[in-house]
Amino acid sequence: MTTATKLFGPVQADMAGVEERLQGVRRTDQPLLAPMLETALAGSGKRLRPAIALLSGHFYRYDLPRLVTLAAALELLHVATLVHDDVIDNAPTRRGRPTVNARFKNTVAVMLGDYLFANAAVLISQTEHVRVIENFSRSLMLIATGELGQDLSTYDTNQDIRAYLQRISGKTAALFLTAGECGALLSGAPEEHVTALRDYGYNLGMAFQIVDDILDVTGTEAAMGKPVGSDLLEGILTLPSLMLMERQPRNNPIARLFRARGARRAAFLTEALAAIRESSIVEDSYAMAEAFADRARAALAPLPADPAKATLHDLCGYVLSRSS
Amino acid sequence: MTTATKLFGPVQADMAGVEERLQGVRRTDQPLLAPMLETALAGSGKRLRPAIALLSGHFYRYDLPRLVTLAAALELLHVATLVHDDVIDNAPTRRGRPTVNARFKNTVAVMLGDYLFANAAVLISQTEHVRVIENFSRSLMLIATGELGQDLSTYDTNQDIRAYLQRISGKTAALFLTAGECGALLSGAPEEHVTALRDYGYNLGMAFQIVDDILDVTGTEAAMGKPVGSDLLEGILTLPSLMLMERQPRNNPIARLFRARGARRAAFLTEALAAIRESSIVEDSYAMAEAFADRARAALAPLPADPAKATLHDLCGYVLSRSS
């Protein structure tokens, strides 16, 4: 049994249906569009959001066709935001593969992202569940607001951890929350359990993003498929770098990096990453991620017995322990 | 009575509700976002799509709150696509005002467009009408596909008028069609009249875009708020330029413009515009727009007597006669 098989437990086999639905989006009669879709959708990750949707829909009426539609819509919305993010961050690679903006150009990536948004919108409307559609639309709004907030705050050293948590709750946790909530809604779960899976998704998403931000400063380029410290190079302050700003208010390498131009930036980046790694910041950041994961696990308590419960529980550990 | 008052007849006063709803989107607690929204939403045109939605909803139960929600969603989707279009076309001005990409930067325009899409999605979900939401999502898909098709065909001189009509049916007519169809659906119109207003919207949208493309070669920069011949400069072939390609297959100034670099481009553009104006191409293009407008008027025939009927009829003449 592979890690992946263990990872998604009772819905593992059904994840193939999500892949099929995503393959459907890749089929197009426009020959020039095919390689663009291929670039955006290939190897785009672990399909965590779709899995959370199926698992959250496993406690009551497991309506697989509609859950697969929801799951594919979530993944397409996620990929669409990544395609636009990579334009905004001018990112050359993601997961070790060239981004759409790098392989084609920025304008293609803008249009392709819109095309993927459109596909996500069509899929979610096919669930024909008004509250699911409303929640989905609201999560797009939170993601867009989170992205704008992140961009408007780049190179701004007057941010605090509170603002960071607010940003990632929109940028990342909103879609995990929607996966849990909408999966529960499509299965006809009672309101109390919709709320439980909504809380689960939110807290898991927060833990996920914090770990992501830790890996950006501790990982290796080989494992991450992007340069280490890429956020700092883009002027984006995440939890570890905000902790360094707080703990070393004077002569901080990040503040110097943000003011520097040219080759001196690399030296300040190295210095900032070393300062983070040599302190207790990584440990303290993981403690914060663990606190969110604990809340995610606790949120599961009211749910009825179901194999999905243990799997959702174990996903918290997976999110904390992942190395890429 | 102003032209505008006459233009939207029985729904003219209710258009203020659409403006109010759009004002609501402009109110934000993010101080940096406010001027961006202002740039995107101010002076963005005649609100034709919202008016068609209200008028199409006037024949049966005139459910104004839901129609206003639909109308605002249509306009926001339209503005969102304009914001992204201006990034893709690298446009400095629209309607004589600086674009979001020009006033801020491309990445801001990408995010702002996504934010407006998100607002449109939230509004349309608030209609709580599954078929309306489905149609709206499908129109986003057609717009995105039309835009991609346009971009993938720039500088391609092997296009024909059939491909052009296909492109503008997605890029423009889809949203007019959705305005008519969804307005009718929200008013509880019988299927036959939903189809009639859908056909009306489609054909009016086709006429509208053809006139737009004529004005791009016959208008003045002062009236249009953008350089004359801007499409040709971006490598986009529209009806008048495709007619010139067909009628002058050898030594065509457009083919030379597309191959030229630098200052020679301006000379070939002037030559191409003169060739179009001196031929019967403008007249023949208007004849095609008129044929679509005639079909739009004919589509109204089965609808019951209502003041909205005459207004929709007159909008066809307005679209043909507008000069900016």
The strand line-up of the biggest sheet of chain A is 1-2
Number-wise, the strands of chain A total: 2
User: According to CATH, what is the class of chain A?
Assistant: Mainly Alpha
Examine the secondary-structure arrangement and name the CATH architecture of chain A.
Orthogonal Bundle
Calculate the terminal CA-CA distance of chain A, rounded to whole Å.
Answer: 21 Å
Classify the oligomer. homodimer
SSE sequence of chain A, one letter per element: HHHHHEEHHHHHHHHHHHH
Helix content of chain A: over 70%
Could you describe the 3D structure shown?
The structure is a homodimer of 324-residue chains. The longest helix of chain A has 28 residues, at 191-218. Chain A has helices spanning 3-8, 15-26, 34-41, 48-56, 64-88, 100-103, 106-126, 130-152, 161-186, 191-218, 221-224, 230-233, 239-247, 253-259, 264-278, 281-299, 307-321; strands at residues 93-94, 97-98. The first copy, chain A, is built from 17 helices and two strands. Chain A is globular and about 60 Å long. With 324 residues, the first copy, chain A, is an all-alpha fold. The first copy, chain A, has a single domain (3-321), classed as Farnesyl Diphosphate Synthase, CATH 1.10.600. The interface between A and B is large, with 41 and 41 residues.
